[in-house]
Amino acid sequence: MKSLILIFSLALITVSCGSQIYMEPTALSTVIEKKEFDFNATKAFPTNYDVINVMNSMPGSTGTRILNLSPGNGFNLKKDLFSVALPYFGRAFNVNPGDAGNGGISFESKEFYVKQSATKKGNTLFVITPRDQKENYVFNLEVFKNGSAFLSVSSNNRQPISFDGNISAVK
Fold it and tell me: Tens of pLDDT along 40-49?
């Protein structure tokens, strides 16, 4: 009886510890090959310690530097359009007083460069550089085999920020 309970417990633990699949491998390879997909950001990782200290001082804070995001944050990559709508938590170095309502990273680019390569672990790395924006952004997106992704955004005018999320087919 004890061995039956032990086997059942091990089977349950093994099933629950499996990684989550966000996109089927065939569909993932198709969207990567076409370079047309949506990145859906689920978590933000700010690098500015002022922001982290404010987050940690809030009631009910967990003491981490991770922010859970609501749906609708991310970007859309198509052959002729790169549309970005991401929140930003950090320091901007040059700010115009009229841009007070533009705190996030939000723009549409029709002139951009996409470089695709493979990492040592077999993941896909995209480096996306818009050319028609005031700020010089560089988006480094690593897409994992299960459809999850990690995005790092750097700019000449802002501190870097990273996002965790997943890839989906263009809607």
Answer: 999 988 876 6
